[in-house]
């Protein structure tokens, strides 16, 4: 319907989403899309880990994963770029192989948390009244338990299979996504064109998905990135405690735990997976910082 | 203090007690009701129905969930936390022997991190954009966005492995002298401080900058007040509420940090106790530790809100 899109006043799209970076992109080459150098670095690192998560299991030679031929806790060398672990396995292979757990599980959990949070927020904003109050109260109660503690309780109750870990992390971060999406959606809900749509007799679902959702999608995508960082840190922390992904599968948190004994001789086996986590989270932060619409998000987060 | 403030405070405290009750329902549901039959799990699939029924009665599983919850809550309120499933010791005793250690760790960390973080945050806010601000802010973002165990591992690498100043991953259980105690505490406190200071500094900086950007500060500047007077007499009194809020909220991050730090340094605190309880699926122990942690967290968050209410001068003149 051309009418709706035409009826959206320019003020409806959060103002700074439009493009504070637009003038810059004229001076920079087009492929930079207005990203600064730090943002590009973030994109490159992020792309590398995503590729590792997607393709790693298919490209890595199987025999390298199982064999413990080399010396235990070997130093960095030409044949083992990141040294070897407590069984003499190549650390680089282990880290790249761990990417699919750290990146993959966290990505799944984040997508689940953000989409659930956003949908519930749309429902709360479009319904108002009792539904809104009830949803806000119930989800606020979940935030009364610190995230790590919640994860520990969930693992105690339901164990730590991969599916359970994804569900746990998703449940923990739904309230945060809900709160931000709701504060954005409530503002949009007050605007004239939503009232017009309502008067026109559009249903609740139509208003949620066609009137409000497109206008909060930008900030929510950036929030998704931030939430991804929290989930990565949470899952890595759990694995580090030995309560995350169980062996023989190993994400980066478990790799740090397995090789913590090498710390005394400053082994690369401990530092490499820890730095891999740091590179991932910092890369996501860099990318978010370079996305347009930062000011709008900070307003929404309050 | 007037009636309005008291009313707001009373409502806030009542709300946190209600949250605590909701938390206890959640904790009990997740650990004791939803996972299924603990007796079945203990005996396996081939257990005879009679043995199953007997164990259920012994574990108190033959009564419905809500009834068990009320019994558990009533026991917890009176201080009876049940018996540990693995060690067969009263949970109250286990927790009681570990809790002072954790509180001591938290207190020492707070003692060091609060003054450092506050002064760093205020200085960075006042000299916003200076090299000091940039270094501190970038450092804080870096610390916040890496896992706590990386901070702890790096601290061990630098201070224990490279410099040999401190013992690494061992905790001395029998402490005889002050020097020994300092050495045993140094690494855990140092790692926790890094995390807490980064959090608290960021929040303090934001709170002070918020005040410095307000129109009344522009007025103070225009009337010609010195920089020190502007910050100390005009901006800071107004930032006390938000700063107190920041302190209490950051200290609640201590709870997350302490879980990792106690584990990595093998420190005999309550977080280590809980992690062990989780890996052995010792539910009474997990429930008790979870409730202690959540109470502490809610206490700090409530305290943060109370500070915000009390420090808001607009409420005093109604």
Q: What does the model show?
A:
The complex is a heterodimer of chains A (302) and B (318). Chain A is mostly helical and 302 residues long. Chain A has 13 helices and no strands. Chain A has a single domain (82-293), classed as MetI-like fold (Orthogonal Bundle), CATH 1.10.3720. Helices cover 71% and strands 0% of the residues of chain A. Chain A starts with a helix and ends with a helix. Chain B is mostly helical. Chain B has helices spanning 3-33, 38-43, 49-59, 65-77, 91-126, 131-144, 148-162, 178-212, 215-222, 227-264, 270-279, 283-310. In chain B, α1 packs antiparallel against α12, α10 packs antiparallel against α12 and α11 packs across α12. The chains are: A mainly alpha (302), B mainly alpha (318). The interface between A and B is large, with 40 and 46 residues.
Number of helices of chain B: 12
Range of helix content of chain A: over 70%
What is the helix content of chain B?
A: over 70%
User: How many domains would you count in the coordinates of chain A?
Assistant: 1
Briefly note the structural class of the backbone of chain B: mainly alpha
> What is the global morphology of chain B?
globular
Beta content of chain B comes to under 5%
Uncertain spans of chain A, ≥5 residues at pLDDT below 50? 1-26, 295-302
Order of helices and strands of chain B: HHHHHHHHHHHH
Largest sheet geometry of chain B: none
Shape of chain A: elongated
Largest interface: A-B, 40 and 46 residues
Stretches of chain B where pLDDT is under 50 for at least 5 consecutive residues are none
Under CATH at level 1, the class of chain A stands as: Mainly Alpha
Order of helices and strands of chain A: HHHHHHHHHHHHH
């Amino acid at each position: 319907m051309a009418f709706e899109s035409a009826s959206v006043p320019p003020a409806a799209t959060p103002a700074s989403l439009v493009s504070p970076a637009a003038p810059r992109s004229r001076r920079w080459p087009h492929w930079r899309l207005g990203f600064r150098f730090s943002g590009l670095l973030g994109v490159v690192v992020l792309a590398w880990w995503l590729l590792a998560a997607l393709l790693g299991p298919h490209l890595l030679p199987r025999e390298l994963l199982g064999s413990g031929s080399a010396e235990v806790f070997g130093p960095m060398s030409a044949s083992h770029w990141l040294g070897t672990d407590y069984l003499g396995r190549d650390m680089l292979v282990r880290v790249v192989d761990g990417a699919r757990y750290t990146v993959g599980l966290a990505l799944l959990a984040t997508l689940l948390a953000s989409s659930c949070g956003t949908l519930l927020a749309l429902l709360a904003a479009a319904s108002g009244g009792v539904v809104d109050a009830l949803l806000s109260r119930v989800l606020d109660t979940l935030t009364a338990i610190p995230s790590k503690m919640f994860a520990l309780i969930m693992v105690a109750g339901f164990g730590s299979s991969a599916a359970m870990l994804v569900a746990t992390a998703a449940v923990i971060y739904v309230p945060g996504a809900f709160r931000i999406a709701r504060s954005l959606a409530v503002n949009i809900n007050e605007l004239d064109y939503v009232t017009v749509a309502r008067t026109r007799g559009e249903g609740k679902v139509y208003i949620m998905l066609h009137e409000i959702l497109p206008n909060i999608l930008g900030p929510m995508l950036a929030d998704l990135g931030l939430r991804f960082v929290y989930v990565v840190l949470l899952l890595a922390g759990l694995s580090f405690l030995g309560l995350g992904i169980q062996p023989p599968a190993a994400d980066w948190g478990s790799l740090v735990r397995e090789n913590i004994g090498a710390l005394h001789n400053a082994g690369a086996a401990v530092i490499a997976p820890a730095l891999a986590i740091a590179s991932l989270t910092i890369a996501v932060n860099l990318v978010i910082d370079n996305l347009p619409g930062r000011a709008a998000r900070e307003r929404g987060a309050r | 203090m007037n009636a309005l403030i008291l009313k707001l405070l009373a409502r806030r405290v009542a709300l946190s007690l209600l949250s605590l009750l909701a938390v206890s329902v959640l904790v009990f549901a997740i650990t004791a009701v939803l996972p299924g039959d603990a007796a079945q799990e203990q005996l396996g699939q081939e257990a005879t129905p009679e043995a199953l029924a007997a164990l259920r009665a012994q574990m108190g599983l033959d009564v419905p969930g809500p009834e068990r919850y009320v019994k558990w809550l009533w026991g917890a309120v009176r201080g009876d936390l049940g018996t540990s499933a693995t060690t067969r010791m009263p949970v109250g005793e286990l927790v009681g022997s570990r809790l002072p250690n954790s509180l001591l760790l938290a207190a020492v960390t707070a003692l060091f991190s609060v003054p450092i973080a506050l002064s760093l945050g205020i200085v960075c806010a006042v000299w916003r954009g200076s090299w000091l601000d940039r270094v501190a802010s970038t450092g804080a973002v870096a610390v916040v966005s890496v896992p706590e165990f990386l901070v702890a591992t790096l601290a061990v690498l630098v201070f224990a492995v490279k410099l040999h100043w401190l013992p690494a991953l061992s905790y001395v259980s029998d402490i005889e002298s002050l020097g020994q105690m300092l050495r045993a505490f140094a690494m855990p406190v140092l790692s926790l401080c890094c995390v807490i200071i980064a959090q608290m500094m960021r929040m303090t900086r934001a709170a002070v900058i918020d005040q410095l950007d307000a129109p009344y500060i522009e007025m103070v500047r225009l009337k010609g007040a010195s920089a020190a007077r502007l910050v100390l007499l005009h901006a800071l009194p107004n930032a006390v509420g938000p700063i107190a809020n920041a302190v209490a909220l950051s200290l609640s991050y201590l709870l997350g940090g302490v879980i990792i730090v106690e584990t990595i340094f093998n420190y005999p605190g309550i977080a280590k106790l809980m992690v062990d309880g989780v890996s052995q699926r010792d539910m009474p122990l997990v429930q008790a530790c979870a409730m202690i942690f959540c109470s502490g967290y809610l206490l700090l968050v409530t305290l943060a809100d109370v500070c915000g209410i009390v420090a808001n001068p607009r409420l005093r003149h109604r």
